[in-house]
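Section 4.2 – Deliverable D4.2 (structural model, holo form)

The reporting period included a commitment to supply a predicted holo structure for the target in complex with DLZ. Inputs used:
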Amino acid sequence: MYLKGPSPQHHDGSGLRVAIVHARWNESIIEPLVAGAKDKLLAAGVKESNIVVQSCPGSWELPIAVQRLISASQIQSNATGAPSATDLLASSTSDLTLTNNSSGPFDAVIAVGVLIKGETMHFEYIADAAVHGLMRVQLDTGIPVILGILTVLNEEQAKARAGIDGKGHNHGEDWGTAAVEMGVKRQEWG
Ligand code: DLZ
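Output (structure tokens):
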């Protein structure tokens, strides 16, 4: 039988710290995606206190938000007395607010956005830039960044990919699972 998606592996996420950064456009679709990702992190053993959820305005802002968050978490864990992730984010990006007080570098970040094609070229420009930006951030930092950006033609497709109304499958769950695998492998591979 042909299976869509990666064949499953089990990984223990209990030693991981993971961030979820989501855009706030199309929030009714974003919410179940973030919840699905978080559920899979918890199911793999990631502690609630080691899951940080942040937001930014739109998908365009995801690369800079992810990059600053990774950088802030590394500075915080490397130097005593250095500004905390909260301080750094508050000074640079006022709409990002940490949702818990745990600290330490992130092992993986999930970037979540929903782009619905409109009548202008915005969709193509934002999707292309955001996807390339996120790839650059993960290669530049060495921290896996999970691509949680849905690019869909209409709301119906978006709902199906977020598992809304019992239709389709919640892709956020796949992103949570991918974050655990890549976080664990990054620790193993150095
Ligand atoms: C401008 C815009 C448009 C038209 N559509 C979306 C969308 O479908 N999903 C999304 O996440 N963001 C959208 N944005 C907002 C941009 O990502 C960005 O926040 C603004 O252009 C400000 O830089």
